[in-house]
Design brief:
By secondary structure, the chain is mostly beta strands. The protein has no helices and 11 strands.
């Protein structure tokens, strides 16, 4: 059974940075595209970023382009989300998602709060 465990969330001031990590187990991480999503209070979960299995292709939602960077280390079964120039509207629970041919796996989420 696949598992994903996120970490790295916390409280940060506007303009600050955080790096989220998501460690995968139980499925073939190195051949799976990976995504980051987020869900703010009272809102639907929304797509943030995706990365191909090789790391060669990435895509971002418009609101984070130029501020967030998704990357992966297949040797460590880990996907990252580097978040810079954080804004209060980035406050949300951040989830990683792993996509295989048969199943999607979700982590439990990590809280990111941007406030002064």
């Amino acid at each position: 059974e696949g598992q994903l465990v996120e970490s790295g969330g916390g409280l940060v001031q506007p303009g600050g940075s955080l790096r989220l990590s998501c460690v995968a187990s139980g499925f073939t991480f190195s051949s799976s595209p990976m995504d980051w999503f987020r869900q703010a209070p009272g809102k639907e979960r929304e797509f943030v970023a995706t990365i191909s299995w090789s790391g060669g292709v990435t895509y971002y939602t418009d609101s984070v382009k130029g501020r967030f960077t998704i990357s992966r280390d297949n040797a460590k079964n880990t996907v990252y989300l580097q978040m810079n120039s954080l804004k209060p509207e980035d406050t949300a629970v951040y989830f990683c998602k792993g996509r295989t041919d048969s199943t999607d796996y979700w982590g439990q989420g990590t809280q990111v709060t941007v406030a002064s």
